[in-house]
Design goal:
Layout (H helix, E strand, L loop, with lengths): L16 E3 L1 E2 L4 H13 L5 E4 L2 H4 L23 H7 L9 E5 L4 H15 L7 E4 L3 H8 L6 H18 L3 E2 L1 E4 L1 H5 L4 H22 L7 H6 L1 E7 L3 H23 L11 E5 L12 H11 L10 E3 L12 H16 L14 H23 L7 H21 L31 H16 L2 H16 L5 H10 L3 H12 L18 H17 L4 E5 L8 H12 L3 E4 L6 H11 L3 E6 L4 H14 L7 E5 L3 H10 L3 E3 L6 H17 L3
Parallel strand pairs: 1-10, 2-3, 3-4, 4-5, 5-6, 7-8, 8-9, 9-10, 11-12, 11-13, 13-14, 14-15
Helix pairs in contact: 1-3, 4-17, 5-14, 6-8, 8-10, 8-13, 10-11, 10-13, 14-20, 16-17, 16-18, 19-24, 21-22, 22-23
Amino acid sequence: MADTDRPIQHAPDRPWIFRTYAGHSTAQKSNELYRGNLAKGQTGLSIAFDLPTQTAYDADHILARGEVGKVGVPVKHMGDMALLFDQLPLEEMNTSMTINAPAAWMLAMYVALADERGDDRHKLRGTTQNDIVKEYLSRGTYVFPPEPSMRLISDMVSWCYTEVPKWNPMNVCSYHLQEAGATPEQELAYALATAIAVLDRVKAGGQVPESDFETVFGRISFFVNAGVRFVTELCKMRAFVDLWEEIGRERYGVTDPKALLFRYGVQVNSLGLTEPQPENNVYRILIEALAVTLSKRARCRALQLPAWNEAMGLPRPWDQQWSLRLQQILAYETDLLEFEDIFDGSHVIDGKTEELKDKARATLAEIDALGGATNAIGHMKESLVGAHIDRIKAIESGALSVVGVNKYTSTEESPLGTGDGAIMTVDPAEEAAQVRDLKAWRAKRDNAAVEAALANLKAAAASSVNIMEPSIACAKAGVTTGEWGTAMREVFGEFRAPTGVAMVISGGGDEEIDAVKAEVDRVSDALGRRLTYVLGKPGLDGHSNGAEQIAARGREVGMDVVYEGIRFTPAEIAAQAKEANAHVIGLSILSGSHLDLVRETIAEMRKAGLENVPLVVGGIIPPEDARALRQMGVARIYTPKDFKITGIMGDVVKVVEKAWLATT
């Protein structure tokens, strides 16, 4: 049959899984949200865990202060897991968990819950993200060093394919790579290199017979990002499909067409969502959704869309419903699912796809030459920071247009986000309630059983015993998330990933940068030494992209910038500032915990005798919170609308001059 005789239209395909990324404050309130979303037509859950849960701390740990329930749901123990899935049929659910370092623990609790409820663990369907390499590179919720982290992932992959065979034990996540500035070829190559590193580790681990390896290969899934550059993003997805099949056939000898399928879920780009004119984000989200749904052979298996107002804070249920309705209209009102791939045979699409594949292969070869993904973390991190610098500078210069930010900035006031309740907030009292619940849980359990389970867990971690069954036993005994994390830390140790900002950067003739550099030199001369800026990320927020850009630009304009990375206590940041004799301290906080963490940092600065050092703060900060921060004494507050980083640096120089030189 000639190509022109091939059928082009058919009965509608089954749509992708509709998800919204959700979870907040408590397991009970999150369960109510999930049941409401499912009633509105959502077909799968995507669990957002709070930062203490993501980093394996209990709610009463010092680093958890101010972070409990802020960006997701706290799951401290089996009791929370039971509440989270109350009245939800586990055997029928499709549950995605955005969890990485403690992925084995969250899956263990999920399986333990199924066992206790009498559900068949073999029928459980879903995904644990479980991608630790991208945590080192972009998201920051890592805990353990690379080698034991890869061992945990390998254990899960090796265990899941027989015990929970419908579960995807790993969802290689390139989403956060693009959020950190990755180019399309970097997103392709870094994600594929991560999958290769895991598969090579599974092969070397000896837990999976060679005859079963094809099955394991087929259970590796991906979670990608789709930006607003529609044609490039669509071609990137087609490139992913081709390259994954190529890796399966050529590197691992996989021949089963079903096992070779590139199975991916997607959240469309949040990096491009804007605080100015946020209603425009609806159009961006729609265009990005089209990039991962229009091409049939590269169509996503699951899709979750951010809400239009996520650049300002947590979305309300109505905001999430609006994004869900977009998916439903696309799937059920249009004829999209009735046609064969509408891009097959396009020389433009084929050409761009081949270009991306060639660039990705070249980048993969670089990573291979460095010894694979886990050995190339430092190189990849610096490359990401560099790519993000290029993107930010393009926005600042206007070479990259962002409507409402650097182009067409005049606007009418939006009626969509005004008044109280425009974004969801978490009651600060919830954290204290979570700590009380944690203490009550510890008091009522059999502590001898807990100690025995933890001893077995540590023995397994210290040997070659698969970690999953000992973790499930811990869940059933009543072990908490922080106790599991502590046990693993005692065996594996902890890790601090590279920041990627060590390189010396030159402005290369940029007039604005040169002007600020001259001001830094002038003020430094007046101070008698180089203007010193200590930049800290307090608490558990791992979104370090903004802090990295501030650190890099500060060095570019000639400041002495001290930036040690993420996850420091306010006391540790104050100590860094005292040791460096800082002229200014900056905090970057994107988790919504700015009031608590700034208040505590100011208290620690006073204890250290740094009360005269000005403090500046950046993050997603609502206007009413900004007023509160100013009342605390914060000198400057920067939010996403302040996109010109060189301008921020110039402003910081003025803050330093006013604080230290105004009276001399």
